[in-house]
Amino acid sequence: MESFNCNSCGYAIDDERGKFCPNCGTVVSPIGIPKVKINVKTPVTPTPPTCTKCGLTNTNPEARFCLQCGEYLGSRENILQEPRPIQVWISSASPPSTPVQQKMVIGMQLKMVPIAHLFGKFDKIKGQIFLRRDGVVFEGRRGGPVVHCHIDNIHQVVKGIKSNFMGIKMKNGQEWFFKMIGAKKWVRILNEMLVK
Prior knowledge:
By secondary structure, the chain is mainly β. It is built from two helices and ten strands.
């Protein structure tokens, strides 16, 4: 039996009228791209899958996508069992030696700055920052992010280039940078809290 290969995944397709790969769902016969012919034997089952959208009966029993319209045929369990590439983000911060349980900062409020900025990789978030007995809480404006830096999870607190910048490095490798009035005093207070 004469077959074609999918240009994307290399899966053998035995139906020349197929427009979509039964394995990955990509278009297999776009105009201008020739198909590669190979000789392959395909298993035959008594009940081949039928597409619910266009009604085409697929000749391949393992087909997960319709050859004619590209509609998904198989169960999600079959797809989830296959190995998938995993996207990994590599941080410049060193990973923790042991996982650190993040704690919520709920202690009594000592100080508050109503106008503060949290600096991320690509943006600056406006909000307010609270110094509490057990750490620092930043609350973004308009439902923005809430950052809890519990004193047990803080590795280091440093003063920024200017006196109104403060950096907090967590034990899990995360780093938070804040701009606010009185940051220099907060660095001193937090470092005293870390010693205790």
